[in-house]
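Recall from the previous lesson that a structure prediction takes nothing but the amino acid sequence as input. Here we apply that procedure to Two component transcriptional regulator, winged helix family from Conexibacter woesei. The sequence below is the only information supplied.
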Amino acid sequence: MTERSTRILLVDDEQSIQALLSYPLRRDGYEVVQATDGREALARFEERPFDLVVLDVMLPQLDGLEVCRRLRSRSSVPIIMLTAKSEEIDKVVGLEIGADDYITKPFSMREFRSRVKAALRRSELSRSAERDGGSLDVHELRIDPDKRTVSLRGEAITTTFVEFEILLTLARSPGRVFTRDMLLARVWGDSAYRDPRTIDVHIRHLREKIERDAKEPEYLFTVRGVGYRFRDTDASS
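The prediction returns the following tokens.
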């Protein structure tokens, strides 16, 4: 059976942006399916599998944030959001509802292609799932790298792709301090073009999911002025 080409759903209501982004993607060998509003994007997503979604925030019918929320409720497909420079709040909200990355307009084609390749590379690594060792059990938390699942006190915890990667990276090196740039490089392959504060958003969201009290964490600790660390495996509580 012939393997299909990597398929990308490109969602933007501006024809000029569609043309600008579709050309380099197709030149790189990707199949590009276009949608120009939120409802069409959801319809296209139901028709066939996708390896990546590139999603503008400002869309007719349903905005990009709502589309992202609905996609994330049914799929772990990587999502890159396109935002205007003035829409800082949309970046934060987008990350919190499950976007894996965002690109601020205007952006260079080199940056765009770099982000797309990094997202697809992460997704491929996830699918191949040749992970080291079995489940990680720490206190009341279990992380299963092969199944890409997280459970707390026996209850399943839903994480985005990026949240899972950050948690797994930290948990595999208990007690080790990771800077934001180190985490960016581990999860995205590099820290180029990315705001280190992106890590803070994902850490905050993870704490809301796995900590009894996000202000008094048991698992994810802040090392002020440096970055973050996971609890030591010999911690007593």
